[in-house]
Structures are given as C-alpha cells and as structure tokens.
Amino acid sequence: MTRLRFGVLALVLSVAAPVVAQTTVVGDWDMTINSPQGSNTVKVTFKQDGEKVDGLFKSPQGELPFTGSLTGDELKFTFSIPFQGQPLEISMTGKVEATTMAGKANFGGFADGDWTAKRVEANATAASTIAAPAATNGATTGGGLAGKWDVTFSTPGGDFPANATFTEEGGKVSGTFGSQMGEAPISGTVEGRAFKLTLTAQTPQGAMEVALTGEVDGDSIKGKAEIAGMGQMEWSAKRAKP
C-alpha cells in the first residue's frame, strides 16, 4: 500500500511539473549595436541546433558569419571584422525574451558597448526583400566615373572587396559605396580624370570616416584611401560588366 501511494505521488508530481519551453532564436532580427563611436543597426539571421547557434549579419553587399551558443535564455556569440589589417574579434552576450534580446558587446578588449534586437515579422522581411533592388536602379554606365565598379582595397592583411555605384553631374559626384559592413552614401567632386570622394561607413564599432582620391583611366581606377584610425592604403577598381 505504501509503495502504491509513493507511485501515485510520483506520477502526480511528474504531471504537475511545469514544462519549460525551449528558447529559440531561429529567424531574422533587427539588431542595434551601440559602441563608444555610435550606434549601428544591422539585419541578423540566426540558426539553432540545440544549444549551438550560428548565423549571418546581412547587407546588400555581403554576409558576415558568427558562431555561438544558447543555454536557457543566455546567448553568446562571436564574429570578427578587419581592423588595421588584422581581424578584430567582437564578443556578444545577452538574454533572449521571446521577440526581443539585449546584452553587452566587447570589441576585442579595446572597448565595451551594448546591443538590443527585435525579431523581424515575416511580412516585414518580405517587404524589405522586394524593396531592396530599387535602391540600385537608375545607375548609369558610360565613360568617366559614372557607373558601377568592383572595388578592391589593398590592406596589410590582404585584399578587401567592395563595390560602388557613382553618378556624375556638373563636376559633382554622388552614389553609394558598399562592402560586407553595409552600404553608405558617397559624395565628392571630379575634375577631368581626378576625383575626391568622402563617405561614412557604419561598422559594428560605429561610424568610420573614409576619404578616397584617385584617377579614372577608361574602365579602371587607381587611388589612395585615408581611413580614420587605420591610416592610408591603396585601392583600385574595375568597371562592372553590365
């Protein structure tokens, strides 16, 4: 009789015990990273296999992978970006609460910041995917600087690819410049074959000022890039094929 009572009690307790739902981060998120240099919002896609987490930071110019883990609601992941010719590792920790996340970021031991994220609804993701191509429409190709270009920066750590779309009118240049860090507007002037351009690139560490100078020679460009905090480096470009 005693054994029967204990058996019934164990069954009741097992049924009454709360079921803990598996926390999931799978899907698309809008993430805002705050560093001492400023704030930057990026699109992030998470994948999950048990406690293993990986995914991609996404932009129209490329993708940046990361890896990490999710234990309960505690999220940890890391990724790296080029900085002064070397990879800079960024570590992110935080908590997941249904459709939001928040936590701290460490930028290679040089600085700390914080971050937040909000899950992207399916219809919003679809709308942004449809709208994205419109940003590149209207670019013209032809002689001079106007048109689309495949860009390469020569850094001590190797070549860094990017792309650019320029429009030219009355000696003034405008357009967009993109890389795996994202896309940024660019402006400047052109006189003959020589030009000067400036842009502000948004990175997970904040805003980065870039000044570009160079000369156009048919379908190629060679020049110098002055990057805040990184010094000067050479860059080149070839006109993109239609």
Report on the architecture of this protein:
The protein is 10% helix and 64% strand. It is mostly beta strands and 242 residues long. The protein has two domains: 21-132, Beta Barrel (Lipocalin), CATH 2.40.128.120; 138-239, Quinohemoprotein amine dehydrogenase alpha subunit, domain 2 (Lipocalin, Beta Barrel), CATH 2.40.128.120. An eight-stranded antiparallel β-barrel has the order 1-2-3-4-5-6-7-8. An eight-stranded antiparallel beta barrel has the order 9-10-11-12-13-14-15-16. A hairpin with a 2-residue loop joins strand 10 (158-169) and strand 11.
Short summary:
The protein is mainly beta and 242 residues long. Helices cover 10% and strands 64% of the residues. It folds into 2 domains: 21-132, Quinohemoprotein amine dehydrogenase alpha subunit, domain 2 (Lipocalin, Beta Barrel), CATH 2.40.128.120; 138-239, Lipocalin, CATH 2.40.128.
DSSP helix count? 2
Determine the strand fraction and express it as a percent band: over 45%
Q: What would CATH call the homologous superfamily of the largest domain? A: Quinohemoprotein amine dehydrogenase alpha subunit, domain 2
State the helical fraction.
Answer: 10-25%
Low-confidence runs: 2-20, 123-142
Q: Give the integer mean of the pLDDT values.
A: 78
The ordered string of helix (H) and strand (E) elements is: HEEEEEEEEHEEEEEEEE
The secondary-structure class comes to: mainly beta
CATH topology of the largest domain: the name is: Lipocalin
Going by CATH, the architecture of the largest domain would be Beta Barrel
Strand order of the largest sheet: 1-2-3-4-5-6-7-8
> What's the N-to-C terminus distance?
85 Å
**Total strand segments:** 16
Gyration radius (Cα, Å) is 24 Å
